[in-house]
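> Could you send the TPR repeat protein prediction when you get a chance?

Sure thing. Input:
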Amino acid sequence: MIWRREIIAAVLIGVSSFAHASILDDAEDAIARADYAAAMKMLEPLADAGDAVAENDIGWLYYEGLGVARDEARAVNWFLKAATQGQPAAQLNLWDAYLNGRGVSPDEAKATTWLRAAADQRLPWALVELSFAHLDGRGVRQNPDEAFRLMQLAADQGLPFAQNELGWMYETGLGTSPNDDQAIAWYRQAAKNGNTSAGWNVEYMYRSGRAAPVDPAEAKQWNRKRNFR
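Output:
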């Protein structure tokens, strides 16, 4: 049925952006309910027409073997199509592929190039991974100050994982001056956003008296949440 996909792709070039977005939304809904075959059917015409989001999504399906046989080399080809159009999620996926040698030969330099490209677009998880790279000196110069700056950018976008990590950086003085008030503030924000580890950190900061003022009632509340989990 390739011919049918080609016809649909040609038609899609002229459809409104609203209809285009609606198809992408429907495909995402299909992925969410694990109906990968339906998602692929909707995504293929868009990807064939050059839609970067659809290209990345198809790449992800092949990368993970969802609804199709796992084919990491094919996945990388789709990621590359999307990434060269500036699609940040595809750029981050290429970082993972080159870092771990999935579908391509391992290449730390190329991995770092794609990670930087995604981070330059302020993709939260790319900022987190580039922050870790600067902490470890992996593919980039070791630079705790830059690691802190990048984690701050990710946390400011509301990523709970980054908010918890930023709290830890404030608590330990990694890349910044130690600041328990800032640490507890970021731990609490991350915990409110659902990060379990942050809830443990809130409980510890209150119980140990490192947060000011100490609030035994709130510490007890977080302790109950930790024990429940």
